[in-house]
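Section: Multi-chain targets

For targets with more than one molecule, the full set of components is provided together so that the structure can be written out for the assembly as a whole rather than chain by chain. Components appear in the order listed by the source. The example entry contains two components.
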Amino acid sequence: MQFPLVFGLNTFGDRTNDLDDRPLSHAQSIRNVVEEGVLAEQVGVDYFGIGEHHTDDFPMPAADVVLAAIAARTSRIHVGSAVTVLSSDDPVRVFQRFSTLNAISNGRAEVILGRGSSIDSFPLFGYDLADYEELFEEKLNLFAELLKGGPVTWEGNTRASLTNQDVVPHLESGPFPTWVGVGGSPQSVVRAARYGFALMLAIIGGSPARFKPFSQLFGLALAKFERAPLPVGVHSPGHVAETDEQAREEFWPRYLDMFTKLSKVRGFAIPTRDYYVFEVGPRGALFVGSPETVAQKIAANLTVLGANRFDLKYGMGGLAHETLMQNIELYGSQVIPRVRELMAESIEPTPHAAIG
Amino acid sequence: MTTPGRLAVLGAGHVGPVFARLAVDAGMKVAIAASGDPEDLALMMQVVLPEAEARWAADAVADADVVVMAIPLHDFTGFDPGLLAGKVVIDAMNYWAPADGVVEMLQDPRFSTSEVVQRRLAGSTVVKSLNHIGYQDLVEARRPAGSPERRAVGVAGDDCEAAQVVAGIVERFGFDPVPLGSLKAGRVLEPGGPVFGALLSQADFEQAVLSRVAAEA
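Its structure, encoded as tokens over all components, is:
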């Protein structure tokens, strides 16, 4: 494998409940995320990412501020987004905020650019979803220019032009790692390669194996654009507890609640228990279970997908902070070492964990 | 019409390559086209699905027995209807205002979105189908005929013969086609309808859909 294995945790700042299942305030949920980030470093996680969201269920519009708080209390873990909705933001501001985070953290900042499934930022900031493609394309282009360092000259339709503009703070030692989050469109894979950004596959439903050709496509596209190889990561939701049953039963009612809410807005059917069982099984996209089950599934998928990084999106609206801390503890102290072991020994995945 | 052997897929985002995969596996000859030059698409298809040919949209359509539309519906407003004249067109597109923004011509509650598509594609025969199972589930959900786990896919068209052709394709893809009688009835397949995003057996599908169709007739 060309790149070292990296294991991250991602959160969308999902609103947490107390142990009596009463919703905590947005403010307390945010303070909890800081504690979760600090614990992630203590238990050996490599990356802590926060995804920008703008709703009551995910009160996390200023992820970079929270990341700075985590950076100030840690010394090793990388901190970044998961994702930054670049299309409804100003690339200059995104660069400035993450370059500042990079300064505070002594070079531990990363950014993952994308859309996520979050669309709330568009009406909030006065953008039209119909312009999504043009916004993302142009802003990726400007962001790539900003990362080169030095004065920027740029012209486009979606923001004011820049002429020989010095954008601060300057990068201390080259550009921070930048990824593009891709949800299943091969065209987006080629675009990430064109700009020379690393590839983060967001696999949030259905069989992960269908993403199998993407890392190969990414490699070919990088070669075509005469760029050096870049890492490939996987972002998927999940939940780790002591046993498979505990993990599944803790996660299911929260998952059902969230998707019932989403289904009303988006018009799709509420997921059935059968569908959930498929998703948490070896062929689905939910990494829910005991440390051994989740480790086997991660190892099998990284191998099949040709990826060297896995980010677990932990939490689901309503789960208690204490439950999430337990999840983080198990992920860092048991899942990550077990995946490293499985991949180092190139153990054939057990039939249970085999995926097609 | 004899069994159609050549399918053109228009759209190469999340959805198009999935339809191309289903068609290739069903033994069809598949051409796929995006809005631009097929050269970019060729690199992609070479890895994702080498059995499908990346072509200019006009060339892909010209040689096809059936065309499946897998572009975002909000981009369809800028689509040239002349390109599809004389063809059977599967409308697999969804109007998803909460995710893609509002499109004025699709807002009229009297018409299903496929009726609006048919009105614009006056020279083509439109059949609504394959829009209601998530692209992330389509490949995994296929089953051979007779399997107890086989899932249903609705087929809604005003033209009986075209609807049968599409039903035959759905069947070959690995699903049980459920005919819905008219493009208007195809509204039950849309987001917010009783089967959108669900994986249902034929019996459950019919139960979910038929009461709604009767209520709207």
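Residues 6-216 of chain B form a domain with the Rossmann fold fold (CATH 3.40.50.720).
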